[in-house]
Description:
Chain A is α/β, with parallel strands linked by helices.
Amino acid sequence: MNTPAGAVPEPHPLELDEPRLSVRKPAVRFDKQGTLGDGERVERAMLSFIRDFGRTSALYMESCVHCGMCAEACHFYQATKDPQYTPVWKLEPFKQAYKREYGPFAVLYRAFNLKPRVTVAELEQWQHLLYDSCTVCGRCSLICPMGIDLASLISQARHGMFEAGLVPHELWAVAERAAREGSPLGATPKVFAERISWLADEHEIDIPLDKPRADVLCTMSSIEIMKYPEAVVATAKIMRHLGLDWTFRSDGYEATNFGLLSGNVEWQKKLSLKLIDAAVACGARLLVLPECGHAYGALRWMGANVYGKPLPFRVLHISELLAEHVRDGTLKLKKLGKSVTFHDPCQVSRRGGATEAPREVLAALGVELREMQPSKDTNWCCGGGGGVVAIHRADELRYKVFRLKMEQIEATHADLPVTSCGNCRQTFDDGQRHFKWDQTMHSLLDLVADNLDEPAKSA
Amino acid sequence: MSLLEFARGPGMQVALTVFAVGCLWRLVALLLLPGAKDLSEPRRRATWKGLRAILRRSWPRREFLDNSVLRVVIGYAFHIGFLLVLFFYVPHILFFRDLLRGLVGVPFGLSTSVTWPSLPTSVVSVLAVVALVALIAALVHRLLNPVQRLISNFDDYFSWLITIAPLATGLLAYGHVGGWRYETLLATHLLTVEALIVWFPYGKLMHAVTVFAARGAAGMSFERKGAAL
């Protein structure tokens, strides 16, 4: 890849002391990677876009009637009223290329040049639309009267952009780091082990690492490891409370998947296989994903497809695990006696189907749940998902989008805003600082760990 | 051969052939693509229940309605008006019976026995006007709404023209308007219908077929995850 002139050995230093974790704001942006020629970039983008093109994706491409309703569902359009943020417009070069190169009438389109060839300049222009202004939250996929799953097409377009070497600087840098070090934000196995040892001492709790056999393999997101380490402790407390035979593994702990977010299929696979192999190695019957949205999509819904066969263990988001144990009575919680509003992480709720799990846990905490309007499956995204929060040049736009969230939360007048995704949390932390907002986003996991009814368990 | 004879005979035959070949080509091209096999453990096993999305997406969720209700109402006005006129106007029913006779053949006795109730002509004319007005409203919306204006292409405008033409010529023929001979008006109507039939498989009008498949496919993949349809 291109590196800044006179680059130091660490070309993309991380910035870990800010509310939002990313690489430090680059003095010079490198949003174009590699040394491919323009024509080659376009060709690779399009080939990669259609490489995994099955019947369903093609059907989606064939069905748009340009009604524009997807814009109404998109937070980026709603916050700006700028028509370029219309979800289906974000796919325009790929739609064009599909018709010209791949669709049923591609021969006619090419013969009469009905759709001009996509240019690299267009793709560069569209980088802003495919990355900076799309969190892949899938709200548009829910409004489309034609039933087009736009979010899945955006992900496919990102595959093309990655192959073309046209990924935003920060996203490329953290994804590359994740592939190289196993973690996008410096949570290497060594760092992870050190943190665990420190946290175990500090909190006087046993945090098993690298047990050769365990029923349950717990995982973390690097955002938690680096920014919210109390999540590690909270997980340990809850596992102890539940009496589960569990472990962390230094060969498979990082649940975030920047291969997925940036669009690199190989890196996505590599990162997912680490988790899968670690779970298989310790004979886990259950892999618990941390408070992270896209980690859920990556492993719960794409893991087996990456693996090439069904996973030999169950995969649960931590909120699902908590809900299961609320249901079977093994998770005993003290009543919190506060009002709470819950921010749904898109990939867990709308895209993942686990919308009710956190609500069951909140009910067990005895909180008064004040739903935002809209909420649950049509909840507004925090604006930081899909890798957007890592991209510095997207900040101003993201803050505009974040206002929607602030208004929603304020309207509930709840005591605590709570979510179940570390990436949402850091987006809220960053928004809170930017707007000098008086609300802090809380973690469902922490809330549960702080309110375990331990005496009842020993009784 | 008069214009009307041409429109009724070879014109219609050519149009129907182009229509059939185009539809078949486009659908077969889609069906031949590999279906993506999902190996993930489904949250809900009865994924076919996701086919509910075919109905579900016929009306936007309450949360989405505020900014899209006008488009939805225009859409319904056009589609209902157009389809009722297409299938329940007496001369159209006769046309479809003729078509059926041509396709299935008399030996089965279908073409002579199959028929369905028609709508009174006065109702049909009102419905045609409703569809026509809705189409004009749809175009105005497309031109005035910044989002739709940006994302629209040749297909959108051409398909609009191709769709409104038979409606307009049908109404003209019905009303014997313009001082033309009825035969000329009818021939014009038939030719515009043929243009529609020819264009149908090649542009966005094909959504009439793909919409159900796309909604069903998305519905089934969402249902598998236990996600909202």
